[in-house]
């Protein structure tokens, strides 16, 4: 899994006026802000792209003690929208602007985090987290929280946790979680089982 090569990347280190205009509309930034962010990006990534390896290294720095591989793969796949194996400036900006401005219809950091998790794990982009999408979500949370494999059994197995999450969050009983159900903060704040993992 880790040996996938970044083969189809055509790095671009320049921005065209068309791209700037498009980004201004999409990201609600001024052309100057975009040029500034772009020059910072190129300073850090001179080839104009964040490779899979660089991305994993970066997350490893954030979570040095944990197994981030699965989570990093999901996050990378979400960010690499054109699936060319690298994160270009536009793809990078889509994420950072979302995080900066709380464009996920939420106001605080916890919810931006949840919103991002939702987007990452809604792999078929249908606006719902289904059972098969909740399992990798639970496993990634466990990885990030550093829960040892030996403790992921019984009530802590991913199967049991998916059931638990659905029981708790699926308010309309359709066996899947809408973004609204998933982002309902009330459900998380006082949750002893998952609240602790999510918000520590
Ligand atoms: Ca890409
Ligand atoms: Ca889905
Ligand atoms: Ca539901």
From TrEMBL:
Highest taxon in the source lineage: Eukaryota
Pfam families (UniProt xref): EF-hand_7, EF-hand_8
Domain EF-hand: 109-144
MF terms in GO: calcium ion binding
Keywords: Calcium, Metal-binding, Repeat
Gene3D superfamilies in UniProt: EF-hand
Stated name of the protein: EF-hand domain-containing protein
Protein's organism: Adineta ricciae
